[in-house]
Amino acid sequence: MKAVLQRVTRASVAVDGNVVGAIGRGLAVLLGVAQGDTSDDSRRLAQKAAEMRIFEDADGRFNLSLLDTGGEALVVSQFTLLADTRRGRRPSFTDAAPPKEAESLVREFEDALRGLGVSVASGRFGAHMQVEIANDGPVTIILDTAELQRPRPA
User: Fold this and answer.
1) Cβ atoms 81, 1 nearer than 8 A
2) Considering only CA atoms, which of 13, 1, 42 is closest in space to residue 146?
3) 79 an active-site residue?
4) Which residues in the chain come in under a pLDDT of 50?
5) Which is catalytic among the residues 38, 80, 93, 130?
6) Residue 152 has what pLDDT?
7) Pairing assessment for the beta strands 18-23 and 2-15 based on DSSP bridges
8) Where are the beta strands (DSSP E) in 16-146?
9) What is the pLDDT of residues 136-154, one digit of tens each?
10) Does residue 62 carry a catalytic annotation?
11) Of residues 55, 78, 109, 145, which has the active-site annotation?
12) Is 93 a catalytic residue?
């Protein structure tokens, strides 16, 4: 599972010209679900995203998390994060989870954020969406469950 976190002043997602989700200050989360990802991966990634200290404190340092600031999250499913571009010029998406499985894990990610007290808006799974993001900073962080499982070098 991969997530691109973007610190935003506002973000929204529309389907067929109609806004289906919008937030103010917080995180836009582009979320890709891979084959083999689990409910535990969804929960751990949601916890990591909510606790990531990428918001500035009064001294301008990255010391505050989404939970500390009371910010919101806009979660948008994006299977293209799982693109394999090692060969040729056309990306392969064979590493992406099947849609039914991916949708369930995206919902679990959203529910885990809500369980932590985060207000969550979302896109529409499987739809062609237009996402507007006012990236603040810009601050963009990539999280990958494979990286979360790997021990840090000494």
Assistant:
1) no
2) 1
3) yes
4) none
5) 80
6) 56
7) antiparallel
8) 18-23, 26-32, 55-56, 62-64, 72-77, 119-122, 129-144
9) 999 999 999 987 765 555 6
10) no
11) 78
12) no
